[in-house]
Design brief:
The complex is a heterodimer.
Chain A (H helix, E strand, L loop, with lengths): L2 H11 L3 H13 L4 H21 L5 H24 L7 E7 L6 H12 L3 E9 L1 H11 L3 E5 L7 H12 L7 E5 L5 H6 L4 E3 L2 H11 L4
Parallel strand pairs in A: 1-2, 1-3, 3-4, 4-5
Chain B lengths: L2 H9 L20 H8 L4 E5 L2 E4 L5 E6 L2 E8 L2 E8 L12 E4 L8 H10 L1 E4 L2 H10 L3 E5 L6 H8 L6 H10 L1 H24 L4 E6 L6 H7 L1 H13 L3 E5 L9 H7 L3 E5 L9 H8 L4 E5 L9 H13 L7 E4 L11 H21 L21
Parallel strand pairs in B: 1-8, 9-10, 10-11, 11-12, 12-13
Antiparallel strand pairs in B: 2-7, 3-4, 4-5, 5-6
Helix pairs in contact in B: 3-7, 5-7, 6-7, 7-9, 12-13
Classes of the chains: A alpha/beta, B alpha/beta.
């Protein structure tokens, strides 16, 4: 890997926003392939952030700062990616379930997925099952990701999955669930396709579900 | 023993007759169900501050803007405002609304906020303590809630707690000098508050929390010096001090909590929601630390039999059970807004009471094949 890609990766891991912008611009000027900049510099950086998070070496602040730096670099890189007809890893519609206004976990998962090359449709918080159904109909995401922070809003994950079944859409989309009180057993109980205990692992779960792992 | 005798036995290093069942009072709206559980020995944990704050030179204006309740603080250094979304459902136990707009939005807000911090005057109302004790009788415990946040925790709330979390993190990275000034000002204010707490009649003091969002090194940097100064002092004044440790990744904080010197680790959420079992915690913190469990409510969705079995395993994992309390520190029945959830929660909570009756009597006998709850773990 070229030095500048290593510098991009390290700057993202360290959350150094300004340096990432500078290095991505420099990499493009040097004529590096934008897909290489994305995959070897940026996606690899977020994967490293995820590994550190899993090991308890990084926490949400470090993840947020890295994600902000990654997004700054991505904003510079995006026009070049369009020119080379870059295809996203997959499309994910993500939201916090109805009755729940918490968004830190949902946002982190969004950032990590975006950092892994997924296209994100952010549905926000307090998302009604009908809205999820409509988004799946109109946008055909590969994955619906549902978040809940409260034990008592978790049942709305099942309500949403049931709404997708009723609408005849369940087979067209994978559903992954997560959030502080959500467990693997609960995910299985409600018929979700995948579960992630944290934002870092969500990337592997999502990739696995669409055969991109 | 009535509940107060039981919980006092645990808090004062004596032996209770059984493991106390002690949820926050907000988790059980008063009525028939709560009374039935109290008749079975459940106690109520009431959290109130005996010390409250005012800013005498900052006129406060409240108004409604759409579905936002807005509070504007008029300081000589400029105005700052906070917004709370109303009618946000059963989202919080103790708040009618959720903060969606924190006070600190940009550099211009530092000076007004610093003025407010310096202007803060604390008042003492010990009648809250005596009246609550009178009302609870043998049925409950008073928790001093006047210092529920650490100085670093206070800085987060200035940005709007959940809604301002990103901003709070970015501001520390982007404007470290301004943030340091803010933090120092809060430290100076909290020193004044802590002295009053130390002099209050409250015996059981909650101080701060382990959220798990930020790591142990951040806690060491910002909060540990304050904790190391004040917790021993409070203890020297006869207080029993607890930390609200509701992080689901508590295993990463195990050593840090051991260093903090609290008497009680409250809101301890074991697997399958948290990643630290009671047995692991006990091994790290020793036999005298009181572990106050936040029952992982997710278990209720597996039905009452699973809740009962889980509670039995929980009790068996910490013999002889004289430094263990089981409670709810998150939602309890409060948020159950659909009939099925309400049924599962009510049946599950009764199953906990059954399990304590059957398996929670002191001394709990160790089991040769206790599972340590690992079968419930989500971690592989």
């Amino acid at each position: 890997m070229s030095d500048i890609l290593i510098e991009i990766k390290n700057a993202i891991v360290d959350g150094q926003n300004a340096i990432v912008k500078e290095k991505v611009e420099a990499a493009l000027k040097q004529g590096l392939n934008p897909v290489d900049i994305l995959n070897s510099g940026m996606v690899e950086a977020m994967a490293e952030v995820g590994r550190r998070f899993e090991r308890g070496e990084s926490f949400i602040p470090e993840m947020l700062l890295a994600a902000r730096a990654m997004q700054s670099g991505l904003a510079i890189l995006r026009p070049s990616l369009v020119k080379v007809d870059f295809k996203a890893t997959g499309k994910v519609a993500i939201g916090t379930v109805k009755g729940d206004l918490h968004d830190i976990g949902k946002n982190l998962v969004s950032m990590m997925l975006e950092g892994a090359g997924f296209e994100i449709l952010d549905l926000g918080t307090d998302v009604a099952p009908e809205k999820v159904v409509a988004v799946v109909k109109e946008n055909s995401p590969d994955i619906v990701a549902l978040s809940a922070l409260l034990t008592t809003t978790m049942p709305n994950m099942k309500v949403t999955i049931d709404a997708l079944k009723t609408a005849g859409l369940r087979d067209r989309v994978k559903v992954i669930v997560g959030g502080a009180p959500v467990t693997e057993a609960y995910a299985q109980q409600i018929g979700a396709d995948g579960f992630s205990p944290n934002a870092a692992r969500a990337v592997n779960v999502a990739k696995g579900l669409i055969g991109k792992s | 023993m009535n509940f107060r005798d039981r919980i006092n036995a645990v808090l004062h290093k004596s032996d209770p007759d059984q493991v106390p069942f002690a949820p926050y009072i907000e988790c059980f709206p008063s009525g028939e169900y709560e009374r039935m559980l109290r008749n079975r020995g459940m106690g109520l944990v009431v959290r109130k501050p005996t010390v409250w704050a005012a800013t005498p030179h900052v006129p406060v204006e409240k108004r409604v803007e759409g579905d936002l309740s807005v509070t504007v603080y008029h300081t000589p250094k400029g105005d700052v405002r906070a917004g709370y979304k109303q009618h946000s459902g059963r989202l919080y136990i103790d708040e009618a609304g959720i903060c969606v707009e924190g006070l600190l939005k940009g550099l211009q807000d530092y000076e007004p906020i610093m003025y407010m911090i310096a202007d803060t005057v604390f008042h003492v109302d010990n009648t809250l303590y005596s009246d609550t004790l009178r009302d609870l009788g043998g049925d409950g415990l008073f928790t001093e809630y006047g210092c529920a946040l650490t100085p670093y925790g206070h800085t987060r709330y200035i940005f709007g707690e959940s809604s301002g979390f990103d901003k709070w993190i970015f501001e520390q990275a982007d404007h470290p000098q301004e943030f340091a000034r803010l933090f120092d000002a809060i430290i100076a204010r909290e020193e004044r508050r802590m002295q009053l707490i130390a002099e209050s009649p409250s015996e059981y003091i909650r101080f701060g929390d382990i959220d798990g969002s930020w790591g142990p090194e951040v806690v060491r940097r910002y909060d540990l010096p304050f904790i190391k100064k004040w917790i021993p002092y409070l203890q020297s004044m006869g207080k029993i001090c607890c930390v609200h440790a509701h992080a689901i990744n508590l295993a990463f904080f195990k050593d840090l909590i051991g260093e903090m010197g609290f008497n009680v680790v409250e809101a301890f959420t074991p697997p399958p929601v948290g990643n630290l079992s009671i047995r692991e915690a006990r091994a790290a913190w020793g036999k005298d630390t009181i572990i106050w469990v936040n029952f992982p409510e997710t278990v209720f969705y597996q039905g009452p039999q699973a809740a009962k079995k889980y509670t039995q395993e929980l009790l068996a994992s910490d013999p002889p059970g004289n430094r263990l309390v089981i409670g709810f520190t998150e939602m309890g029945l409060w948020g159950a807004s659909d009939p099925e959830t309400e049924r599962l929660f009510k049946e599950g909570i009764l199953a906990i009471a059954d399990a304590i009756d059957e398996a929670g009597k002191f001394p709990i006998q160790p089991r040769s094949k206790s599972t340590d709850l690992n079968p419930y773990r989500t971690e592989k």
